[in-house]
Give the backbone structure.
Amino acid sequence: MDLSIVIPALNEEKKIAPDITTAAFFFGEAGLKGEVIVVDDGSSDRTFHNALTAMVPEAVRRRVVRLDRNAGKGAAVKAGVRETTGEVVLYADSGTCIPYEDALPAYARIRAGEVDIAFASRTHPESVICHNRPLSRRIISRLFRLGARLITGLPKDIGDSQCGFKLYRGDLARELFAGLETPGFAFELELLVKAKRRGLRIEEFPIHWSCDLDTRLHPSRQSLAVWKELWRVRKILRLDAGDLKTGNPL
């Protein structure tokens, strides 16, 4: 299997079928053998049903995982990555904010052994923002990025840790996510800092990005939960740093 696409979904009954169909037909357009794995993170609507009935070419493997309760975005992506078999794993948010063809240069670099992890960056100088976020969300995003650096030690050379479109070498994705301890939206901070500490090759790549206003994350309303999760990630990363000093594996 060339590429596995993992899509976490929470109450995405209107978007999940187009998401799956777009991802599935991308494989044929790119000449890749692939699979689409959707994780329904305890949705209360028809997300699971619509994911099962979305149009998918016969050559594409479709797998829909249903979590019994809303476990969090990190937990959902972890469950999806566990099911992957691809040489490269791509995790993508619901809503198809980024065209899949934007991932092809990064995919090629991972397959060539030049990069271990590649992630889309809205701050990349070559990125094209087709429809930007409202000003309030951009301000909140900058504050979150500052908090992530101060609290978790996120390296300054990572310009956009939270863009939901990342590619991993397949075996590395399955290893990293198996050790993931952050169940919520800040899971990417844990993974990126751990990867940097281990000297893995991480590269940002430019994208064409359109804001999806129909999001399940509302930082202004969930500010307390946001800061609690950042401090939880900090604690996890401190323990990980201790493991590195004592030679314990990931």
Notes: The helical segments are 16-30, 47-53, 73-82, 104-111, 135-152, 170-178, 187-197, 223-246. The CA atoms of residues 37 and 83 lie 8 Å apart. The longest helix spans residues 223-246.
